[in-house]
Specification:
EC number: 3.1.2.2
Radius of gyration: 16 Å
CATH class: Alpha Beta
CATH superfamily: Hotdog Thioesterase
Shape: globular
GO cellular component, one term: membrane
Protein name: Acyl-coenzyme A thioesterase THEM4
Number of helices: 2
Helix content: 10-25%
Largest sheet: 7 strands, antiparallel
CATH topology: Thiol Ester Dehydrase, Chain A
Structural class: alpha+beta
GO molecular function, one term: hydrolase activity
Main location: membrane
Bound molecules: tetradecanoyl-COA
Strand order of the largest sheet: 1-2-3-5-6-7-4
Length: 184
């Protein structure tokens, strides 16, 4: 089976500079929402991703794989690994562009099994913007920032109005103001 991915990004893109208010390298980023399954600190059994701003406009996320994340005995569930990448890539887009966006498409290549007890080091970057479409990708390395690559992911995020979260979800419309026009 060929593992050569199709052209990425699939369309002509611009390469935007990070937003002036994007966090500086080394900044630890807390959860964007306490009940988020990916990063929230009030979700028992959630992924509890820890993110920080890396060098060269990257967002670095760490996912500690526990017994709660198993698919096969002793191995991480693939869907949860994809979820970790969704979260890390969403954070990459949101933190660097400071615009509300949702996942339109997520592709994940699983290259190595990820054992319980390991830590996945995910490095996300922006690959370009075309109108409301934002392309981002990430590598996930086992147990060290320079460890072997276990997963790769590519995603399309679509920039939305904040009303996406108030009309379709339960976000509080009072959260909408010029400094908070980002994902709830
Ligand atoms: C401090 C800062 C903190 C921030 C931290 C934040 C962290 C957040 C972390 C959270 C992480 C977790 C994140 C989550 O879990 S987000 C939750 C999971 N995602 C969703 O629920 C999204 C559901 N989908 C929708 O709501 C709509 O379909 C959207 C909004 C995506 C688009 O509907 P809309 O009617 O608005 O727009 P459109 O249909 O004209 O599309 C627009 C353009 O996009 C292109 N397109 C769309 N889909 C696809 C596709 N599949 N493949 C290829 N292309 C696609 C489309 O062709 C068009 O292109 P063009 O015609 O313009 O060329």
């Amino acid at each position: 089976m060929s593992r050569v991915p199709p052209k990425w990004p699939p369309v002509e893109v611009e390469h935007p500079a990070p937003h002036p208010d994007a966090p500086e390298q080394g900044t630890k980023l807390g959860p964007h929402y306490a009940h988020c399954f990916g990063c929230g600190d009030e979700t028992e059994g959630g992924l509890h991703l820890q993110t920080e701003c890396g060098h060269d406009a990257t967002i670095i996320a760490q996912f500690h794989v526990t017994d709660a994340h198993q698919g096969a005995p002793g191995l991480a569930h693939g869907g949860l690994l994809a979820c970790a990448f969704d979260e890390a890539l969403g954070s990459t887009v949101g933190q660097l562009l400071r615009k509300p966006a949702v996942t339109g498409k997520l592709e994940t290549d699983f290259l190595r099994p990820v054992p319980v007890g390991s830590t996945l080091h995910i490095a996300g970057k922006l690959d370009g913007v075309a109108g409301r479409k934002v392309y981002a990708s990430a590598d996930g390395r086992l147990d060290a920032p320079d460890g072997p690559i276990a997963l790769r992911a590519r995603a399309l995020f679509v920039i939305v109005d904040f009303s996406h979260f108030t009309e379709h979800g339960t976000a509080d419309p009072r959260d909408v103001h010029p400094d908070r026009d980002i994902n709830p």
